[in-house]
Amino acid sequence: MADTIKLSRRNFIIGTGAAGLTIGILASCSNNNEDGGDPDQAANAEPNPEVNAWVHIAPDDTVTIRIARSEMGQGTLTGLAQLVADELDCDWDKVTTEYPTPGENLARDRVWRDFSTGGSRGIRGSVDYVREGGAVARAMLIQAAANQWEVPVGECSVEKGVITHGPSGNTLRYGEVAEAASALTPPTGVQVKDPSEWKIIGQPVKRLDTADKVTGAQKYGADLQMDGMLNAAIKQAPKRGGTLASFDADAVMSMPGVRKVVQVDDTAVAVVADRWWQAKTALDALPVEWTVGEGADYSSAAFETELENALTADDASVANMSGEVDAAFSNAAQTVEATYRVPHQNHACMEPMNATAIWTADKCEVWCPTQNGEAALGAASEAAGLPIEQCDVYKLLLGGGFGRRGMSDYVSQVVKIAKEMPGTPIKLLWSREEDMQQGFYHPTTRARCEGALDADGNLTAIKIRIAGQSILAGLMPQALQNGMDPFAFQGLLPSGLDERVEDQTLKYTFPALKFDHAMRNPPVRPGFWRGVNANQNAVYLECFMDELAHAAGKDPLEFRLAYMGDAPELAAVLRAAAEGSGWGNDDGKSRGLCAFYSFGAYTAACAEVTVDDAGQLKIHRIVAATDPGYAVNPQQVDAQVAGSFVYGLSAALFEEITFENGEVQEKNFDTYNSMRLRDMPEVETIVMPSGGFWGGVGEPTIAVAAPAVLNAIYSATGKRIRNLPIKDQSLRDA
Amino acid sequence: MAELKVNGQTVSVDAEGNTPLLWVLREHLGLTGAKYGCGIAQCGTCTIHIDGQPVRSCTYPVGALSGEEEITTIEGLSEDGSHPVQQAWVELDIPQCGYCQPGMIMAVAGLLNNTPDPTDEDIDAQVTNICRCGTLARVRKGIHLAKTKKA
After folding, report:
1. For A177-236, how does the pLDDT look when each residue is reduced to its tens digit (9 = 90+)?
2. For residues A342 and B30, what is the distance between their CA atoms, to the nearest angstrom?
3. B38, A223: Cβ pair inside 8 Å?
4. Which of A167, A185, A214 is the last residue of a domain?
5. Which CATH number is B2-77's, of 3.30.930.10, 3.10.20.30, 3.30.565.10, 3.40.50.280?
6. DSSP B131
7. Separation of alpha carbons A289 and A346, rounded Å
8. B35 neighbourhood in chain A, CB within 8 Å
């Protein structure tokens, strides 16, 4: 039972053969462990010419496609490979993938462009240049064959990696011309295919990274072992704004395995031991004193009062306003008002935060799961006190990301610890309790919604005042727009306000509207949490639309459709979800709808629920429709849409991070629950790409999960639930 | 020094008796298939089998073992990934990030050991693992597919 993997910069790649065999170095390593070989030798065994930055082709025709974005479960690794492979016209069964490092990217003038993986942009943000990369490589390979045959390129064609010269019938395989192709100057002006010509894009091919995930062979950051490696456990100030005052290292130095107690920085202490369990045990026994700072008094309950007051405060930024709002309310036959609230929530990735580093006076290397390899590299360089050229980051598959691993706090920490023990590999693994208490939380916001209806039940004006935390103010205040955070208005924005959020606009057309935001920032780190502010805003808009429909005495489906005249895609997904669910059926199930546009994609859901006399909720089925423009891999779109109901409904049903005296109260999954199979409804997905645009997939459906269920609960009970999570609330009037 | 039977081999480990079995498997034996997720037997990503029964190894002290028990980890579930649950998982392309899947697969394999033809109610009662990516809908389909397959 080998427990050591040798890692080096050259050989630590991910690699998955389409035949289901792992052919990257992880397999080589375990093979080498078994027969005692040298992993470096294995990595050098076969030439693998680089046709261009995106494509390597070995003599045996294995195509290695290089992937800059991070794979965290969302399937982007496979989708990006499909985009390149389709343009390349290679044999999909011979495709494997690897990550270039952020350091290589910088050294090569960022040839792979952006490594950052968030905002549901993994595919849509790179679709043009990765397809071009595949198309250019294809042109170079055909040119190389034509040169060898001394024939015009125009007489050559290619299918599944075999180039044919039409007039003579001669053939050459990609693997036979890759080396010659790699010496050619890449052509310019190469056109990518028309969607009608796609052969691999749009196909429900299997993921490339499954085989090792079902045998336990897949190594995550938490699983890394290196020769001489030590393990670190960390404790950070439990109260917001707290700092490390003192600790008594002598009290634990004699405990089994303990090597060192390290002050990581102003806010954290770590124990380094032979094994992680020893490090954690000693850390739990370590006497630590903390100083309190601003935030030590922070409590969620008090902040709720502040947010309540902000719902009517004068200081608010208006992002979207049109029509005669005041007049509509003055002339209304009926007005409706409701207040909603969504709490802080934690990402709670299954794999706790971790990273492994080796620091020496002239080099720093980090192995870690990260959504942002280049940011991780920057953090490593800064913490190492070394120029960026002397550092590199080797990305690993993530055990969940959801936005949390776009932050590099754990990278900085491991480098600071490693710097205390030069030359020794240090693996830092957070406990679940640290992960829960030291998050970058989904912001808490609430909203006051007001609507005006005329005598015929038509909506004449709508106002939404959002009060709460701004992610940009907390993480990148320089990105605020005149003090306004446009991301706070995801899904509610007017077109043309800010190109960064043009994919997050309101798709309803209302006669008059006013949406504004009163920013209130607690001493809590906010974060981008799968779906981001679309999640809260969909609850506000789409539950309130349901309230308006009922107040107007109209069918919630027809009421919504009446304002979707300028967004046929949104109307189409809403109709598809409603029809797929049997909207209007009298089958004992109560139904609720939601439709929303975010991350450039149109999504809708119809939830089917029952609530028994005791108030027990059962979510039977969700029918979900999504139009992401193009669906690169429909079965992976299905996986993301279905999975969004696990993440979104876990949040709606159970998840809340509360603070008392500056400290997170939910420290593990016993108090921060996540959905189990018994809670999980059947999900029927309708993937309906209408073409002509590239929308996101990993996040947009999260937003429709909670509102569809909340609206279905109302349909079942006549009682509105306006406060999340649903847990601990009576769903029927007491 | 304790002797354990793991995946059909007898091994010796030098660990404090209160060390959770999970950490003995991961750090002493290099079997990293079973994962750490919570440390309090909530999430199930550490699930292994003891005498064919699914056990959350993160709270199971190694000192509580006699050495006679047959311990099976995901690495020992099959030689070549051909256990019916693994076959079903590949066929339905179930894993997303995959971190919870070794525990999920071991929980499901344990369910099928006890209940070869489980109903949805059996599944709900016996498989209570957490998956944050959200594979649960396919996991249920995978269980129903796995029960039709032979090793």
Report:
1. 999 999 999 999 999 999 999 999 999 999 999 999 999 999 999 999 999 999 999 999
2. 43
3. no
4. A214
5. 3.10.20.30
6. -
7. 26
8. 220, 222-223, 350-351, 399
In a domain, A5, yes or no: no
Q: Which CATH class is domain B84-146?
A: mainly alpha
Q: What is the pLDDT of residues A688-720, one digit of tens each?
A: 999 999 999 999 999 999 999 999 999 999 999
- Residue A47: predicted pLDDT: 67
Cβ-defined contact of A73 to B27 (cutoff 8 Å): no
Please, what is the end-to-end C-alpha distance for chain A in angstroms? 59
Q: CA A298, CA A300: separation in Å to the nearest integer?
A: 7
Q: Provide, rounded to the nearest whole percent, the portion of chain A with pLDDT above 90.
A: 93
**Cβ of A351 and B35 within 8 Å?**
yes
In this complex, the residue of B81, B94, B131 whose CB is nearest that of residue A215 is B81
Of B38, B96, B125, which has the smallest distance from its Cβ to A639's Cβ?
B96
* Residue of A344, A345, A364, A348 whose CA lies nearest to A356: A364
Domain termination residue (choose one: A383, A399, A429) = A429
**pLDDT tens, position by position, A584-613:** 999 999 999 999 999 999 999 999 999 999
Dihedral of CA atoms A298, A301, A303, A306 in degrees, nearest 10, equals -140
pLDDT the model gives residue B150: 78
Interface test with A, best of B7, B38, B106 (most A CBs within 10 A): B38
Range of the domain at A94: 25-214
Q: Reduced to 3 states, what is the DSSP secondary structure of residue A261?
A: strand
Q: Both A395 and A485 in a single domain?
A: no
Of the pLDDT bands very low, low, confident and very high (cuts 50, 70, 90), residue A565 is very high
- Answer positive or negative: Cα dihedral of A493, A498, A504, A506: positive
Domain boundaries, chain B: 2-77, 84-146
> Smallest CA–CA separation between B22 and chain A, in Å?
10
Residue A276 to residue B23, Cβ atoms within 8 A:
yes
Contact between A647 and B133 using a beta-carbon 8 Å cutoff: yes
How far are the Cα atoms of A72, A667, B20 from residue A433, in angstroms, in the given order? 22, 5, 17
Q: What is the mean pLDDT of chain B?
A: 97
- pLDDT tens digit sequence for B46-104: 999 999 999 999 999 999 999 999 999 999 999 999 999 999 999 999 999 999 999 99
What is residue A20's three-state secondary structure? coil
Cβ A605 vs Cβ A648: under 8 Å: no
Cα distance from A146 to chain B (closest Cα, Å)? 40
Give the nearest partner residue to A350 out of B43, B128, B138, using CB atoms: B43
Closest in B29, B45, B130 to A3, CB measured: B29
Residues of A whose CB is below 8 A from B34: 216
> Which residues, listed in sequence order, are joined to residue B56 by a DSSP beta bridge?
B47
Q: Does the beta-carbon distance from A223 to B128 stay under 8 Å?
A: no
- Residues paired with A260 in a beta bridge: A272
* Residue of chain A minimizing CA distance to B19: A277
Among B20, B39, B130, whose Cβ lies nearest the Cβ of A676?
B130
Q: Are A328 and A462 in contact (CB under 8 A)?
A: no
Confidence of residue B1 (pLDDT cuts 50, 70, 90): confident
The answer to whether residues A334 and A264 belong to one domain is no
